[in-house]
Amino acid sequence: SSSGSLPERDAYGKNGFVHIKNPHLDLLPEDILYHFDLGTKTHDLPSMFGDVKHGMGIPSISIMLHELIKLLHHAKCRDVTIIRIGTSGGIGIEPGSVVITDVAVDSFFRPQFEQVVLDKVVVRNTELHKELAEDLLQCSKEIASFPTIIGHTMCTYDFYEGQGRLDGALCSFSKEEKFEYLQRAFTAGVRNIEMESTVFAAMCYLCGLKAAVVCVTLLNRLEGDQIAESHETLTEYQKRPQQLIAAYIKKQLNIS
Ligand code: R2B
Ligand code: URA
């Protein structure tokens, strides 16, 4: 990759392998990952997980959620809270701001997700857990490290034309039309755009999971389309939702 010489890459070993900073680990005859119920002798971890890649967008997260929710069910987990964290494009807010979603909306700013089931369109609710969103906002005030707001999140099926970008391989609208659309989104209460929130909200709601969506904004879409901040800045931004959720979890567990 072009960012091979950046300091963050030092955390990784040669050939892209994850570097474990623990000299004792190599001396273990077997490493048992107790909480995952996996071990290096009992399981062929490279063949089980060596090709793990994370997808993007509604189809990827929906497949993952089907199986995660069934796993929670089979494991008889109770009172589960599930939080999607990630990146997004902001609308009219400072880059690096974190948006806690109150409702995920589609490209028409409708608070719904349309799932095609057989040959019918089933419309599902995309509201998120209000109290959880408020608790997360409160947490962000306590850590006070970066701007955080509650707002609507628009979920699209595409990163380029689907998010009104002028820099895709295809573009079938004018600059003026782009701004008019983003302006209307802002007026409708949309503060950021990403690609998973509607199906996430819909599935969690139907399955009775307390759910939140917390995404950092990498840019202000009223100012541009390209993600041009430095690798360092983007890495720092991406840590923000994790920092907020870590603070929330600590608070829930009463750890200071
Ligand atoms: C946010 O970032 C990704 C696109 O760059 C996508 O997964 C999303 O929702
Ligand atoms: N992710 C998106 O989906 N859009 C952006 O603009 C940035 C990150």
From TrEMBL:
GO cellular component, one term: cytosol
SUPFAM superfamilies listed in its UniProt record: Purine and uridine phosphorylases (SSF53167)
InterPro entries for the chain: Nucleoside_phosphorylase_d, Nucleoside_phosphorylase_sf, Uridine_phosphorylase_euk
Record domain Nucleoside phosphorylase: where: 52-250
Molecular-function GO term, any one: uridine phosphorylase activity
One record GO biological process: uridine catabolic process
Record-stated family: Belongs to the PNP/UDP phosphorylase family.
UniProt-recorded name of the protein: Uridine phosphorylase 2 isoform X2
Protein's gene: upp2.L
